[in-house]
């Protein structure tokens, strides 16, 4: 006869943070957005700032964020999340404020808002999910799509002559004087997830210092847009994405800045 295991005798090794809602996520299986959401909300819960934070999500796959993040959320027009976050932070300077944006949003229609927000040194966090494609609207080529990458609008692969080079917008941002903390992380392995979580914590702690904008790029995947299985996308990130978008800090505060 099998031994009965009582619930009270079991040890809890993981529990969904209360800062996430109970809604089922709309994301495709294997999508990195779900992991990014979970880690972001874990940090919010661990820091005890659920009542003191406001998130902004624009158009694209990131638009679903307000369904899942159990915090105050504001929707923004396509590409305008950093502008909306600027207004919120200026009206409510005591709040933690972040924008959560994809590459088709931030690095295309929202390029102007992004650059000028950071150049002004607005005291917010921008989380930038880079999966190198337009995920929600049909898998079109994005500014961050790799050379040779096949998409619905570059069926023969992206080429320099017609499409230009992939836009490394995080590298550009790191040179702006208003950028205080700029880093590129990922969420495809346990180790990269841990580093991403540390970066989120750093960014919120830095926001207290009122020194400028914090920017975290997250190299992620899009199984549906890439026409791959979730497992195949993990290898693609390692072999193709990371050589073009290497992980690590691009700009960190110095002791004198603190």
Mind explaining what this structure looks like?
Strand 5 (179-186), helix 8 and strand 6 (213-219) form a beta-alpha-beta unit. Helices cover 36% and strands 16% of the residues. With 258 residues, the chain is α/β, with parallel strands linked by helices. The relative contact order is 0.14. It contains ten helices and seven strands. It has a single domain, classed as 3-Layer(aba) Sandwich (Rossmann fold). It has helices spanning 32-47, 65-68, 81-91, 103-109, 111-119, 160-163, 169-173, 190-207, 223-226, 230-244; strands spanning 53-57, 72-75, 96-102, 125-130, 179-186, 213-219, 248-251. It has a seven-stranded mixed β-sheet, with helices on both faces. Helix 1 (32-47) crosses helix 8.
What's the short story on this structure?
The protein has helices at 32-47, 65-68, 81-91, 103-109, 111-119, 160-163, 169-173, 190-207, 223-226, 230-244, and strands at residues 53-57, 72-75, 96-102, 125-130, 179-186, 213-219, 248-251. By secondary structure, the protein is α/β, with parallel strands linked by helices.
Distance between the termini: 64 Å
How many domains? The number is: 1
Query: Could you estimate the helical fraction of the residues in percent?
Result: 25-40%
Largest sheet: 7 strands, mixed
Percent strand equals 15-25%
CATH architectural category: 3-Layer(aba) Sandwich
In round numbers, the mean pLDDT is 94
CATH topology: Rossmann fold
Give the helix tally.
10
Order of strands side by side in the largest beta sheet? 2-1-3-4-6-5-7
CATH class: Alpha Beta
Q: What oligomeric assembly is this protein in?
A: single chain
Radius of gyration: 19 Å
Q: Which secondary-structure class do the elements indicate?
A: alpha/beta
| Coarse morphology | globular
Low-confidence stretches: none
Write down the secondary-structure element order.
Answer: HEHEHEHHEHHEHEHHE
Number of strands: 7
- Considering the protein shown, what is the CATH homologous superfamily? Thiamin diphosphate (ThDP)-binding fold, Pyr/PP domains
